[in-house]
Records
---
Amino acid sequence: MQRIYSDYAYGPGPRSNCWWDETIEAPIWPQQAGDAQADVAVIGGGFTGLSAALHLAEAGAEVTVLEAETPGWGASGRNGGFCCLGGSKLSSAAMRRKFGTAATETYEAGEEAAVNLVAGLLEKHGIDADTHSKGETRLAHSPRALRRMQAEAEALAAGGEEPDFLSKSQLAEAGLNGNFHGALTTPVGFALNPRKYLFGLAKATLAAGVKLFQNSPATQITRNGSGFAVQTPKGMIRCSQVLIATNGYSSEDLPGWLAARYMPTQSTAMVTRPLSEAELQEQGWFSDQMAYDSRNLLHYFRLMPDRRFLFGMRGGLLSSPSAEEGIRIKLRRDFEALFPRWRHVQSTHIWSGMVCLSRNLTPYAGPVPGQPGMLAGLCYHGNGVAMGSYSGRLLADLAQGRQPELPYSQVMQKMDKFPLGRWRRALMPPAYALLGLMD
Ligand SMILES: Cc1cc2nc3c(=O)[nH]c(=O)nc-3n(C[C@H](O)[C@H](O)[C@H](O)COP(=O)(O)OP(=O)(O)OC[C@H]3O[C@@H](n4cnc5c(N)ncnc54)[C@H](O)[C@@H]3O)c2cc1C
């Protein structure tokens, strides 16, 4: 596998000390070995791969999932658990300019369908994933951001909606007190324990007849008549179709079409020890809303049902033990700046992982050009709990040769190349610097 970060990014270092590991035991899947057949081979065992596999198996297909590492090893087992609207980094206005109104409205309907899909999967398969929060709350990080938020709330009111807007003086009463200037809540979405959701999905997938393999990286995909042969270290899967679901852990050569079309970037999160009632009151944060601030380089946070506080932000641009140490220090510093009354509260767990961007700043779900029978779903811009699950569902329909049942926008059918090829990470420092300046 040809990947664009150093080996450290793809090893155990960044994910060591991930809180979710302590909340549920990981299942053990066998390692793939020998020559086997399937209708569909899915590469990657995160939300995208498992959702695709589940929906395909429910429609009667024989499916094999190959996971290079262990269950929950990728971003799906180590994220912030915000199941919310998102997946693109384009504003609605920019999306309308680029793709047109109809495609944008279909995309936005898809974002909502994605959240509903996850809620439906939790219910249908009886997955208890410690959910909480009614929608998500955006907090203004500056007076200027507050003015923009106010204008947004006024526009919503003019359109007949009832915006859930809070001024600075109302934040404390709502239990949302920190270094913020106001808040606007979007009433869609909820928070969950991502690892419990993922393993619940895996259990449902197994029950539907899917074969799940760990420590089984696809090392090569070659054409085999009208289908494919997918090589693993100890065997091979011959199949009619292949779905690529590797997101931030993708490689340049699997398939070659992906080269320079995805940009892995890091995200870092921490969890504190449980906070006492007195500590919650002292800071004035006792709401269970999942929340984020209005920065371009945003922070996301939520008080979880066990009273631990989860806090995360973008990760570093480099991946090495010292870079990881540096970003963990910065994360802690930002946490203390936003929640000064919790300076003494220890963060017991800190970890990082890969998210994935595209040049178009939109997710992709669709065919791999020039490879009939191969499909890919990736690039959720740090928002793949709902969008990855939904993308998997789209891929399952597409693999069956039918128009997806859920909204499927043109917005998700374009994936251009970044400039600079394998060296495209050099684009990120100036981009982050600019976004930081705008904040
Ligand atoms: C710290 C952090 C916080 C985040 N917070 C949120 C959040 O709050 N809300 C939200 O919506 N999103 C969040 N995200 C993003 C979200 O986790 C991802 O978008 C989503 O999990 C992507 O799912 P996936 O299945 O596409 O990819 P992944 O879960 O990354 O799975 C890809 C898998 O592919 C495997 N793989 C790679 N190559 C091969 C190969 N050759 N053969 C076999 N397997 C292979 C990898 O081992 C990996 O397990 C966060 C991410 C991180 C890292």
Note: The two ends are 37 Å apart (CA to CA).
---
Amino acid sequence: MTTPAASPATSPFRFFDLHVVRATALTPSMIRVVFGGDDVSRMASAGRDQRIKLFLPSPGHDAPAVPRDVADPDRYTAWRSLDPSTRGVMRTYTIRELRTSPAELTVDFAVHGDEGPASRWALRATVGDRVGVLAPVVEDNVAYEFRPPVDTDWVLLTADASALPAVAGILGHLPPTMPVRAWIEVPTPADHQPLPAGLDSAITWLTTPATTTEAIRAAALPAGVPYAWVAGESSTVKSVRRHLVRDRGIPRTRVQFSGYWRNGTSEDHLMQTEEAA
Ligand SMILES: Cc1cc2nc3c(=O)[nH]c(=O)nc-3n(C[C@H](O)[C@H](O)[C@H](O)COP(=O)(O)OP(=O)(O)OC[C@H]3O[C@@H](n4cnc5c(N)ncnc54)[C@H](O)[C@@H]3O)c2cc1C
């Protein structure tokens, strides 16, 4: 009797070797980078706040060192096992757009000077620069958080520039009849962007250092059952969430919150802290 071979482990994510096709300044604080590569057409996105992992070359290298097996299901461990001094620098970003013809991935970088490797890289991105991307190959994947329950009557969004690409994806995904109230904090008025608008959507732009929590506190919110999605700098996210849950009485389960970055802390340090915890 023969035993059938076990089917190979399949993973809804894989590594892609990509290069910069073009890079343009969208607004003073946002650089749009469009990536191409042989198999971008195999990449998938759920839209909304679809996150990806971006791997940038470490200093002195032309291309990021990432695990060779592009479909390794344990790819994160494989990346961790590479030499930290030469492996690609990993950062989290959002798919702003995934096109099929031509097959291109667009990522919008909120730039904040030379302080972090990703911001530094984006400020100098040039046609042909190579990066690695860990991205889904199926639309139905675990790497997005905007999941409003079916009984949602209206949606509340708050973001800063780092979460603006995700807000654009969420607004593009929502049916035009869904009422939306959004607060978006950007460094300067010139950083406002045109966003998809439904029949009853109100977007309030705030200029740093405005306090998003105070702006929401002063607002009259729609009646009905809300779903809130809150992202951006960690302390602002915490403050907004506290207001929504404690002062506005929105159930915790209806408030999705994500710290996209933390003042004074790099993403490497945040990852190490999370792993240690
Ligand atoms: C799910 C998810 C999706 C994200 N999507 C996007 C996206 O599409 N576009 C985008 O621009 N960012 C996005 N981010 C945020 C991005 O990953 C962080 O801003 C990241 O820290 C940038 O890496 P860096 O190398 O530039 O800075 P790091 O090396 O991580 O940090 C260096 C210093 O810069 C500060 N810093 C980091 N980010 C910012 C910022 N945005 N503004 C001001 N100071 C900052 C840190 O506090 C630290 O002091 C996302 C984050 C998450 C978790």
Note: Residues 51, 91-94, 108-110, 112, 115-119, 162, 165, 258, 260-267 surround flavin-adenine dinucleotide (CB under 6 Å).
